[in-house]
Write a structure and sequence with these properties.
By secondary structure, the protein is mainly α. The chain has 17 helices and five strands. It has a domain of about 110 residues: Alpha Horseshoe (Serine Threonine Protein Phosphatase 5, Tetratricopeptide repeat).
Length: about 375
C-alpha cells in the first residue's frame, strides 16, 4: 500500500484535493470511482508513491495534500510562502490587527508590547523555517544557470540547517554530485553518490533512478538508458519509468524502443505533468522521422499542457529542452522568425550547459531554412 494524491469532484460538483491509500495508481482511481467521485486526477505515479516521500524529505509534520498538489504548479519559494501564510493566518491576522490598533491608538502599554513581541516571534519562526526551502530553491536555480560554485555553497548551507522539511543526506549528495558533474568532475560525482547504493534508507530502485539522472547529465546516455530499462523491468506498472526510458530513447537512442516505451507509458495512469510530456516524446519521434509539421504541433501541445507548471524551477530544464526542439521543428517547417523567437528562450541555458546536440541541431535547421530562403507565412 502507498499514498496517492488526487483531485476529484463530488456528485454535487465540490472539488476535493486529498490522498488515498491504494495498491497502485490504477487501484486508487478505481477506489475513487467506487466512491462516486468524478473528474478524477491521480497526481502520484506508482514509482513516486513507493520511492519518494520520506526517502527524499524528512517532514517534521504531515504535509497538507492540497498544498502538495498546488506546489507542483509553483516555484519552491512561492509554494513555501503561500503555505506558511495559509497555515499561520489564524494567528498572524489577529496579531497584525492588534498591532495596527496599538499603533493607531498611540497606546504603548505592556499589553501592546506583548502583541508586538508575539508578532515578531511568529514572523521570525516563519523566516527560520523558510531558510531551507529558500536555499533549496536557490540551489535549483544555480544549477539551471550552470552556476556550479553558487550551487556548491547552497548545498553546504543546506547541510547546516536541520529544521523544517529536511532533505535526506543522500539527496544532498545527489545534488552535490550534480554540481561535480557540472564542474567536469564526473568520476568524483559517481564515486560520491555510489557510496549510497545498498543502504537501507536508499531503495535500489530509487538509487538506480537518481544514478540514471546523473549519467544523463554526464552525457553517458547509453548507460542512463540501460538503467532506465532495468527500472521498467523492476516496476513495469509505473508510467514514470516507461516515460523516462521513452524520452531517453527518443532523444538519443532507438526509435523503435522509444515508440514501445511511450506506448507502455500511455497505457498506465498518467498524472498531468507526465501527460504533458507524452506529446514531447511523440514530437521527438516525428522530428527524427522527418515529419516536421507534426513535430512542431506536438511540441506546441506539450508546451501548452505543461504551461500550468511553468513556475516550477525543477521543471525548467524540461521546458527549455522542449522549446529548443520546437524551434528546430519550426525552422524545418520554414517558419524561421517564430523559430528564432523560440530558440532565444532556450539558448542561454543550453549554451551555459554546453548542450552540443541541441546547439548543432538548431544551427543545421537554421542554416537550411536560410539557404532555402524560408519566409514565414502570414
Amino acid at each position: 500500500m502507498a499514498e496517492y494524491l488526487f483531485t476529484a469532484r463530488t456528485p454535487g460538483g465540490r472539488e476535493i484535493k486529498s490522498k488515498i491509500d491504494a495498491q497502485s495508481a490504477a487501484a486508487a482511481r478505481e477506489q475513487l470511482q467506487a466512491q462516486g467521485l468524478r473528474d478524477i486526477i491521480v497526481h502520484t505515479d506508482d514509482f513516486a508513491a513507493r520511492m519518494y516521500g520520506s526517502q527524499l524529505v524528512n517532514y517534521t509534520e504531515e504535509p497538507d495534500p492540497a498544498m502538495l498538489i498546488e506546489a507542483q504548479k509553483q516555484s519552491g519559494m512561492m509554494s513555501l510562502l503561500l503555505g506558511m501564510l495559509k497555515g499561520s493566518a489564524m494567528f498572524l491576522v489577529p496579531l497584525l490587527a492588534w498591532n495596527a490598533y496599538s499603533l493607531y491608538s498611540g497606546s504603548h502599554g505592556t499589553i501592546d508590547w506583548i502583541g508586538f513581541a508575539l508578532t515578531a516571534g511568529l514572523l521570525a519562526t516563519m523566516v527560520w523555517f523558510a531558510i531551507p526551502a529558500v536555499l533549496f530553491e536557490s540551489l535549483l536555480r544555480a544549477q539551471l544557470a550552470a552556476r556550479w560554485q553558487d550551487a556548491e555553497r547552497n548545498v553546504a548551507l543546506l547541510r547546516r540547517f536541520k529544521q523544517g522539511a529536511n532533505i535526506m543526506p543522500h539527496m544532498l549528495e545527489y545534488y552535490q554530485a550534480k554540481n561535480l558533474i557540472g564542474m567536469g568532475r564526473v568520476d568524483d560525482a559517481m564515486a560520491l553518490f555510489g557510496q549510497h547504493r545498498g543502504k537501507a534508507e536508499v531503495p535500489d530502485m530509487l538509487w538506480l533512478s537518481l544514478q540514471a539522472s546523473l549519467l544523463d547529465q554526464a552525457r553517458h546516455r547509453d548507460e542512463a538508458g540501460e538503467l532506465m530499462r532495468q527500472l521498467t523491468e523492476m516496476m513495469p506498472d509505473s508510467a514514470q519509468v516507461w516515460l523516462d526510458l521513452a524520452l531517453n530513447q527518443a532523444l538519443y537512442g532507438d526509435l523503435a524502443s522509444a515508440k514501445h516505451a511511450v506506448g507502455e507509458a500511455e497505457q498506465r495512469e498518467l498524472n498531468p505533468i507526465m501527460a504533458g510530456i507524452v506529446p514531447f516524446v511523440h514530437g521527438e519521434i516525428a522530428l527524427r522521422e522527418g515529419r516536421h509539421t507534426d513535430a512542431a504541433g506536438l511540441y506546441a501541445q506539450s508546451l501548452i499542457e505543461l504551461s500550468p507548471y511553468l513556475q516550477q524551477t525543477a521543471l525548467r530544464a524540461l521546458f527549455i529542452g522542449i522549446e529548443a526542439r520546437y524551434a528546430v521543428a519550426l525552422a524545418r517547417c520554414g517558419k524561421l522568425e517564430t523559430a528564432r523567437q523560440a530558440w532565444a528562450i532556450a539558448a542561454p541555458v543550453l549554451a551555459a550547459h554546453n548542450e552540443q546536440k541541441y546547439l548543432d541541431d538548431w544551427l543545421a535547421a537554421e542554416a537550411e531554412a536560410v539557404a532555402a530562403g524560408a519566409m514565414e507565412k502570414p
